[in-house]
Amino acid sequence: MTTTSWGSAQAEMIAATSHAPETIADVVAQLEAVQGVLDRLPDLYRENPVSDFNVLYTDITRRILERHDDGAFRDPQFLNVLDVEFGKRYLDALHRWGSAGLVAPASWVVLFERYNDQRLRSLPCAVAGVNAHINYDLAFALVATWEQGRPRQLRQPAAP
Q1: Backbone phi, then psi, for 55, in 5-degree steps?
Q2: I want to staple 104 with a disulfide (CB 3.0 to 4.6 A). Which of 51, 85, 96, 98 is the partner?
Q3: Which long-range contacts (CB under 8 A, 24 or more apart) does 104-112 make?
Q4: Is the dihedral of CA 131, 137, 142, 145 positive or negative?
């Protein structure tokens, strides 16, 4: 299947995913904007696999933000970079799926192609999104976080 459109919400989805977040709060705000777009799809698509994952991911990211803001993490700067890099992978996949000439990662296409399939149930769809995000995106997010300098001191040679 080569459908690459969010139907009537394609322009809104592209707009909601067109900028990169810089903080965990930005990731939450973008996930909420994406959910708003998903919620405005025609009734036929209201309960869709992408929405099922997005609801779960938004809830998890909100909880991370709350703990981050409460000072619950030993290295909040590292966590902020990691969460942003992780979120950017999903948001970029959404953006690519709805943009002409761009290709979404195959791990996400499996879910995106079925956004209007009402035969699917919420839990397996949320799990499919988690699988794509953890098994594909997490490794890239960790590398991007590392490359941004955390923990930079481990890459420097020890003094003689």
Answers
A1: -60, -45
A2: 96
A3: 104/4, 105/132, 105/136, 107/131, 107/132, 107/135, 107/136, 107/137, 108/132, 108/136, 111/49, 111/50, 111/53, 112/50
A4: negative
CB within 8 Å of 9: residues ≥ 6 apart? 37, 38, 40, 41
Give the distance between the most distant pair of CA atoms in the chain.
Answer: 67
How far apart CA 8 and CA 13 sit, in angstroms, is 10
Pair of tokens at residue 119:
């035969």
Alpha-carbon distances of 33 from 29, 30, 38, 76, rounded to whole Å: 6, 5, 9, 25
The identity of residue 112, as a single letter, is F
Q: Put residue 7 in one of left, alpha, beta given phi > 0 → left and psi -120 to 50 → alpha.
A: left
Q: How buried is residue 75: exposed, middle or buried, by Cβ count under 10 Å (0-12/13-18/19+)?
A: exposed
Omega of the bond prior to 105 within 30 degrees of 0, cis?
Answer: no
Please state whether the predicted TM-score (pTM) of the whole model is above 0.70: yes
State the alpha helices, DSSP H only, in the chain: 10-16, 24-39, 49-69, 76-98, 106-112, 122-132, 138-147
Residue 18 has pLDDT above 50, yes or no: yes
Asked whether 4 and 97 are in contact (CB, 8 A), the reply is yes
Give residue 4's pLDDT: 43
